[in-house]
Amino acid sequence: MANTVIGSSITVDGEITGVESLVIQGQVKGRIGVTENLYVENSATVEADIEAASVEVGGEVTGNVTATARVEIKAEGRMVGDVRSPRILIADGALFKGSIDMDVER
Amino acid sequence: MASKAVTVIAAGTVVAGRIEGAEDVDLFGRIEGSLKLKGALKIDEKARADAELDVTRLEVRGILVGNATASESIELFGTARVVGDLVAPRIIVRDGARFRGLIDMGEPAEADDEAPARRPEERVRARRLHRPALAAGARPRPAEADDANAEES
């Protein structure tokens, strides 16, 4: 099955939960909980607390992020919030404000 | 993705809250709350929507609980299970679809002398009021009389 994709013109105000990967191109406000990967794409704005296996931030994220595997903030990514994940990558050019905790039980 | 953006809500994904947008949405998982869309919503056979829907076009093959308004059309396929009121100029219910609720396709074209945009219950009453006029006019042909009786009961 295909992933869940929230397209660029879509606004979600509420909660998204799932067992699939989630690709966000639009705007999401609220809470996100997925057992797979979350991709916040360039055009996306996310204002939410996030739980996922891994999170890739290419857009704008405001909120706390907990990832069981890894968090990557790409060069175009902008992020404000606290991050908890065993592996964290921040690319050259990325904007980040918040605390980082890599001391997470696997 | 060259032509038109499509949002997909996969099986196993639940979106609860308010969704708005201007593109098509294919639902394989679940939504709860409300969805307002300039575009088509397709509710797949295994999908479920517990939501108020306001869309351009709606296709239901799965479960919908909630009222739906479409500016173009609503189509319930044979696998659809729907509870709620449907409002659209075109509403298609296919063989096998299960539906409970009200259907409003707007004002019928031939009701020329009636004010437009009536609520459905008012329209029913208006039609009843018209009945004596029909009887008083030229004697209806037997077929028409039968129709009138059938509708009256």
Estimate the global geometry of chain B from the Cα principal axes: globular
Q: Determine the most extensive contact between two protein chains.
A: A-B, 25 and 23 residues
Poorly predicted sequence stretches spanning 5 or more consecutive residues of chain A: none
Structural class of chain A: mainly beta
The dominant shape of chain A is globular
Fraction of residues in β-strands of chain A: over 45%
| Number of DSSP helical runs of chain A | 0
Weakly predicted, low-confidence segments of chain B: 111-118, 123-153
Q: Biggest β-sheet of chain A: count, sense, barrel?
A: 13 strands, parallel
E-strand count of chain B: 13
Oligomer: heterodimer
Number of helices of chain B: 2
Number of separate structural domains of chain A: 1
Strand content of chain B: 35-45%
Query: Mean pLDDT score of chain B, rounded?
Result: 79
- N-C termini distance of chain A: 28 Å
Gyration radius of chain A, to the nearest Å? 12 Å
Tell me what you see in this structure:
The complex is a heterodimer of chains A (106) and B (153). Chain A is mainly β. Chain A has one domain. Chain A has no helices and 13 strands. In chain A, strands 1, 2, 3, 4, 5, 6, 7, 8, 9, 10, 11, 12 and 13 form a 13-stranded parallel beta sheet that branches. Chain A is globular and about 35 Å long. The termini of chain A are far apart. The mean pLDDT of chain A is 93. With 153 residues, chain B is an alpha/beta fold. Chain B has two domains: 99 residues, no CATH class; 33 residues, no CATH class. Helices cover 18% and strands 44% of the residues of chain B. In chain B, strands 1, 2, 3, 4, 5, 6, 7, 8, 9, 10, 11, 12 and 13 form a 13-stranded parallel beta sheet that branches. The radius of gyration of chain B is 19 Å and the shape is globular. The termini of chain B are far apart. Classes of the chains: A mainly beta (106), B alpha/beta (153). At the A-B interface, β1 and β2 of A face β1 and β2 of B.
